[in-house]
Amino acid sequence: MRLSRYFLPVLKETPSEAQIVSHRLMLRAGMIKQASAGIYSWLPLGYKVLKRIEQIVHEEQVRAGHIPMLMPTLQSADLWRESGRYDAYGPEMLRIRDRHDRDMLYGPTNEELITDIFRSHVSSYRDLPLTLYHIQWKFRDEIRPRFGVMRGREFLMKDGYNFDLTKEDALHAYNRHLVSYLRTYERMGLQAIPMRADSGPIGGDDTHEFLVLAETGESEVFYDSEITDLKFGDREIDYDSVEACRAVLEEFTSRYARTDETHDPEVFAQIPEERRRTARGIEVGQIFYFGTKYSEPMGATVVDTEGKQVPVHMGSHGIGVSRLLGAIIEASHDDKGIIWPEGVTPFHVGIVNLKQGDAEADAACHALYDSLVTMGLDPLYDDRDERAGAKFATMDLIGLPWRITVGPRGLKNGVVELTSRRTGESEELPPEQALTRIA
Ligand code: ATP
Ligand code: MG
Ligand code: MG
Ligand code: MG
Hints:
There is one protein chain. By secondary structure, this protein is an alpha+beta fold. Helix 1 (21-28) crosses helix 10 and helix 6 (167-187) crosses helix 7 (242-253). Helices cover 32% and strands 28% of the residues. It binds adenosine-5'-triphosphate and magnesium ion (3 copies). The site of one magnesium ion has 3 residues, from strand 13. Residues 109, 140, 142, 151-152, 155, 157, 200, 283-286, 318, 320, 322-323 line the site of adenosine-5'-triphosphate. GO terms for molecular function: proline-tRNA ligase activity. This is Proline--tRNA ligase. It is found in: Cytoplasm. Keywords: Aminoacyl-tRNA synthetase, ATP-binding, Cytoplasm, Ligase, Nucleotide-binding, Protein biosynthesis.
């Protein structure tokens, strides 16, 4: 993409309404624009990152054997009356009436809708296990929408639902989700710690939240510092193996790590003092096992091996896809702007032409651009007629992992400058070597 033809409305001034750094940087980098309280338009740069995050979530869900689909944003109130949640959900639910006076709602989550799909089409244990998921917009009429996309009213969530014959099978699905979530967050350059949590309006007994440690996080968390040494890394895992998935759950939940809702000061006090941590965290996902809480009232049953009708065991599992943009920026920025992890960056490389219109510099930039595209990378070429300082400031703000700076002086010596956004280190190299370094 050539910057002169792109739509990147960066802001010079720091927007005063933004209280935290990720919100400020997303506004300044022209990623989002507020449409109304807690509702945002995703401008091209923000949309690109959102799509990359979504793609990672999809890939890891499919890898775990979960099946993608898409349910609507608007739902009929009738299903929610069956589960008893239409009244129980409270004012966070946006209720709508259509022209025929039917009660509708903008879905805050999808347990009822998916259970209805399941009961309409599945009747035998032979069709289990089954895990369906979608990535769809949700609406929750949050009392205090704030921090940009972190606490929006309209937000993008991946929500997945498992259907199993027994509690044991459903707990395997739970563990499988935990493993796939660890992989998902690490691919985005994030450490998200599974913590024992409270189940809230979804209901159920077993639940973990995934928290990214950050001062601006809305949750108070308590943990054993040893937990932050754990990495999933690039180990291979057989998602069908009950033992393998359980072992990962045990490893990652063996140290004390809880949100304030489940925090137990007495148990916490048993950890050696130097390892006790109290901090703040951003909830980027949550997994639940809730058994037959929805299948029973809604009649989602299957015939079991002995020919008996039994309600299925279920769980639901969410990732805050749009909130993740804010969480990643909170975890990865400096005073000049965003520092995108490679896994989610909107463009891989920025090319800065120091002398637009100079035949040699222009030609060198074009050649680099074409090579990067051939390598399968997505470059952003700043071909505007701007001062070098302004171009550097834009690149630093939008946070691409690499910058290649091209100017007539360097070209005379056969070199360009390659700069890492994360370390700030620059090197002068022949263009081909700069490309090999990035690849
Ligand atoms: P929170 O405690 O932050 O209100 P939640 O526990 O109500 O979140 P869940 O029902 O667990 O949310 O939804 C799954 C995920 O969706 C959350 O872990 C979070 O990452 C994301 N999410 C929830 N509410 C919002 C929101 N208002 N804006 C953006 N993302 C959200
Ligand atoms: Mg909430
Ligand atoms: Mg929560
Ligand atoms: Mg939650």
